[in-house]
Amino acid sequence: MKDRPSQASHSSPPPGEDPGWAARAADCVRLARAELIESILPFWWRSIDPRNGGVFNCWNNAGTRLLSRDKFTWSQGRFLWLWSRIAALASRGMLPVDPGPYLDHADKTAAFLESHAFLDDGRCALLLSEDGVAKELEPGMGLAPSIYADCFVAMGLAEYAGVRGQRKAFDRAWALAAEIRRRIGAGRVPTHPYPVPEGYESHGLAMILLNLALVIEDGSRNLGDPRSGAAREIVMEAAGRMVARFYLPGGRIAEMRRGDGVPHDDRLLDRHINPGHALEGTWMLVEAGLRSGRNDWVERALEATGFALEHGWDAMHGGLLLQADFAGGPPKGLMGDSRYEAAVVANWDSKLWWVHSEALYATLRAFQRGAGAAMGAWVDRIREYGFRIFPNPDRSVGEWIQIRDRAGRPIERVVALPVKDPYHIARNLLQILELGTGE
Is the pLDDT of residue 219 over 90? Predict the structure, then answer.
């Protein structure tokens, strides 16, 4: 296995000057390591498919009942990324687990995806049966209704390739990533579960392109691939476009932006913000800025982190809202009839697991970069709320109860895909380990 550098190691920070950094980082590292070892990883080891590879993750919210043995490639790609990264960190002594079994199952998962996820035209199917037969999620939808599936397959293969030293897998990831960029550049692409409304561009799509570019760059560097310089250019292009299109004055990140660039602040699509996506994107922009020496990007990211926290926090019940108005409170404005807008209105006050794990890492990263004492207080607030509300109180089951109502009560509701995903929580906890230990 290749001994990959951590995502934090090449960003050359020193930690933030605030005297509270060391104590907060140590506390977050302690929580992250315990949560991974005692709760998150045991749940997903019980959920793997030892015969075919991959993982079963169509669980109910509590994680007590498997609802389907079908496999979303979106989630399988994320799982491959996760199991590969865990093996890398374990090999460096950052996690007290044997990397061997993680690598063995990553091998099976990569083989499953390479054999079954790709359709004849090079796109990735969204949904596969247990043994890999592509199927429609809904009648008439087709086999490839979401480019996000392609993105996560590419990220999983790139991470796996860098950890395992598998150049063939990296070539597959590189080619898929190039095709993703070509398709997005050519015009509208399918983005199930929430199609982007006509005439708009999505921050979420711009963000996943940056995420993919960062992972591809990591893989190329870890393999010593001659395309690493080109990968760095792709990172800069993706970050620059995200800033230019979606980062507005004052720290606001537009979740949807009209293609003509003309804002219509009387409309819900133009007014609403997605605090979780905003915070997830800010740590990616910090990373891109540090890799490329763009301190202006880092400053924009820190400003946007503060805006998302201030305007997305629920003053009544605590926690971050799934959607909010850019002036605070529930989304408002004139509505069309798009599926996306209906979802914003239906789910805006839900409290979701991934929003809070991404927020914890984003605030800790911003605090480390010198965002000040106010950001340190946000680290404390997010950590207290997240670890009080989301971890499953039944530790024999483990994982997090992912979807809750505004008051923090668990609910059975599908937000995005009908899955319990092996990604955000574990990814952010691993990132906290890397950042907090200076690895």
Answer: yes
